[in-house]
């Protein structure tokens, strides 16, 4: 099973990435290799398909972009590891496709595994996609967000955003993922000494390991 190609797109405006991943997905065929796009965005708030714009409390001039992913409102900005997963789920399992629920579970597990390598305990919350701190003073705080688009043909885009070393203030200007007062943290504030490039590489390779394994 061929591993996805990792492409580092550097710092890129959100709307450029959004347009590019839709164009890539429109043009791919059964032979197109899967790709992971590693991106860092300038400040932007993005809204999922069913998002309530009222959850943006005060944008403070930061652009707001409507997307076609699942989920509510979130913030992307410098110091956050964003990986877009451009995959064809029909080729993930010999003899069959990977379904969306398993896809989400494997992405979340990848974040948990990557955090564990830096002595941080992450966990899932039922009905609330993403990863949250499992213990300590920041227990329950969100450290990674997840939002996906899975087309009827099994092709995916959008992905996962892990907070590494950010100015977290803009998260207080929204109800993150639609939850008023939800605390948001990053790896640095939780004591992990890691650079953004290190986090991007570690997360990308952990995703590949989990998403290409048969189990």
Describe it.
This protein is of the alpha+beta class and 215 residues long. The chain has one domain (5-211): BirA Bifunctional Protein, domain 2 (2-Layer Sandwich). The protein has helices spanning 14-27, 100-116, 196-211; strands at 5-11, 35-40, 44-47, 64-66, 73-76, 80-86, 122-125, 128-133, 142-150, 156-163. Helix 2 packs across helix 3. It is globular and about 45 Å long. The chain starts with a strand and ends with a helix.
Strand content: 25-35%
| CATH fold field value | BirA Bifunctional Protein, domain 2
CATH superfamily: Bira Bifunctional Protein, Domain 2
Order of strands across the widest beta sheet?
Answer: 1-2-6-10-9-8-7
Percent of residues in helical segments? 10-25%
Please identify, by name, the CATH architecture: 2-Layer Sandwich
> Shape from CA axes?
globular
Assembly classification: single chain
What's the overall average pLDDT, rounded? Answer: 94
Largest sheet: 7 strands, mixed
Beginning-to-end CA distance, first to last residue: 13 Å
DSSP summary, beta strand count: 10
How many domains, in number, for the residues? 1
The secondary structure category is: alpha+beta
Number of helical elements: 3
Rg from C-alpha positions? 16 Å
* CATH top level class name: Alpha Beta
Q: Low-confidence segments, ≥5 residues, pLDDT <50?
A: none
Summarize the structure.
The chain is an alpha+beta fold and 215 residues long. It is built from three helices and ten strands. Helix 2 packs across helix 3.
């Amino acid at each position: 099973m061929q591993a996805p190609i990792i492409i580092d797109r550097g710092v890129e405006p959100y709307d450029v990435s959004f347009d590019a991943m839709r164009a890539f997905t429109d043009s791919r065929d059964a032979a197109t290799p899967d790709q992971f796009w590693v991106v860092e965005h300038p400040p932007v708030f993005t809204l999922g398909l069913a998002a309530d714009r009222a959850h943006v409390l005060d944008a403070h001039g930061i652009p707001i972009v409507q997307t076609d992913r699942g989920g509510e409102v979130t913030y992307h900005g410098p110091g956050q590891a964003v990986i877009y997963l451009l995959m064809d789920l029909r080729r993930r399992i010999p003899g069959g496709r990977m379904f969306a629920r398993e896809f989400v579970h494997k992405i979340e597990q990848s974040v948990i595994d990557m955090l564990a390598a830096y002595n941080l305990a992450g966990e899932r919350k039922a009905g609330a996609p993403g990863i949250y701190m499992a213990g300590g003073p920041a227990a329950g705080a969100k450290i990674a967000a997840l939002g996906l688009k899975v087309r009827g043909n099994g092709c995916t885009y959008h992905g996962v955003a892990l907070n590494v070393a950010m100015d977290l203030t803009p998260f207080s200007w929204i109800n993150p993922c639609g939850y008023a007062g939800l605390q948001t943290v990053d790896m640095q504030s939780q004591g992990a000494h890691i650079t953004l490039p290190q986090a991007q590489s570690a997360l990308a390779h952990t995703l590949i390991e989990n998403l290409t394994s048969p189990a």
